Amino acid sequence: MAFYLDNAATTGIRPSALEVMVPLLAEEFGNPSGAHRMARAANRVLDDARETMAACLGAEPGEIIFTSGGTESDNLAIQGSLTARPGIAVCSAIEHHAVLDPVEHAGGRVVRVNEDGLVDLDHLADCLAGSEDVPVSVVSIMLANNETGVIQPLDQIERLVRKLAPEALLHTDAVQAMCWLDVAELTARADLVSVSAHKFGGPKGVGVMVARSGKNVEPLFRGGGQERGRRGGTHNVAGIAAMAVAAKETVAERATQVPRVSELRDRLADGIVSTVEGVFETGVTSPAELQPSDSTKNDKAKNEAKRINKIANICHLCFADVESEALLFLLEKDDIMASAASSCSSGAIEPSHVLTAMGFDRQLAFGSLRLSLGYGTTEADVEAALNTIPPAVQRLRERA
Ligand code: PLP
């Protein structure tokens, strides 16, 4: 048995999505690039999936490029834009590494965020200014952050980009948003949009990049001519079909899942914050506002008001004087699956770049815990976490 609170990392596949995969792998397994009956059948599956994904994402079918997931879509957006129109890449400091790394690799500009995790619009404006002879080629700002769940004001960002860098393509990574936000509406004015199936009940290894008509990017992979030359490689037909089923179900149930899950998330966050000292809820309590061990400022009404700017499923906390690795170890002993955002690079544990960018000090950032709910999360998962986390934190602090 597991109390799974790591849905931002990945979700289980929806039964309806799994169901469409098996015959497409075992019986109707034609290669859509071929010319015979089975190939044509596979092609029809792709066409249907393309239409469904387009409807779910507010795009035209011809604007959908099937990829191997969020990482590829993000890399395609950045590198494909830079190759098509050489120039400067700009992204925020809290992007997923699938955006941040290609931008940094290309010597791009990284926009600061404030302590609530929101893009600093003044700094964005400075970064968009370009230079005399090198224009800004692509700007990438995520719709919702994968660690904190904070939602960016994409409409304001879009206006700035159009005004200050009219030649640039605007990309948004909507990977974490699909279950919780109206992605079709919120990304309608972005040129490029990334999503990934395994975050909304589809299989791993499949995703989409939307490239609006006329906003083309150069392919990362050539060969085979698939996706009208925009992405070479034999299609993952079963995965694509399953993604479309999962997307349709996700969009259809959003209106009921968002209030249900946000209520569970609020219960979880409020329950922990009201019983544990020295805990900070990111995007809600800013690091400057609180001193460690001062939880009196964790005001429930204020926290709930500020959570409006977060997607419904993420409860992200930083515990003073606790190391996340040790906390995760204790939680797993009680069958609670969660995650921390620190990453292990070159053998050394580094605090999350997102928390660092928001101004959390290293010590506090090392005590981070992300509990991410999903469409399958139940009250029992939340109760288990509420029963386990406060005593686990206390035990770790007593040991220190
Ligand atoms: N972008 C965001 C915001 C993510 O959260 C993730 C995965 O965690 C990715 C991109 C990468 O997606 P994928 O796992 O499909 O490569």
Structure notes:
The chain has helices spanning 15-26, 37-57, 70-84, 97-105, 121-128, 154-164, 183-186, 237-275, 300-306, 324-333, 353-357, 362-365, 379-399, and strands at residues 3-4, 64-67, 88-92, 109-111, 136-140, 169-173, 192-196, 207-211, 279-281, 314-319, 336-337, 343-345, 348-350, 368-372. It is an alpha/beta fold and 400 residues long. The strands form four sheets. The protein has a seven-stranded mixed sheet, with helices on both faces. A three-stranded antiparallel sheet has the order 9-10-14. A two-stranded parallel ribbon has the order 1-11. Helix content is 42%, strand content 14%. Bound molecules: pyridoxal-5'-phosphate. Residues 69-71, 74, 96, 98, 142, 146, 173, 175-176, 196, 207 line the site of pyridoxal-5'-phosphate.
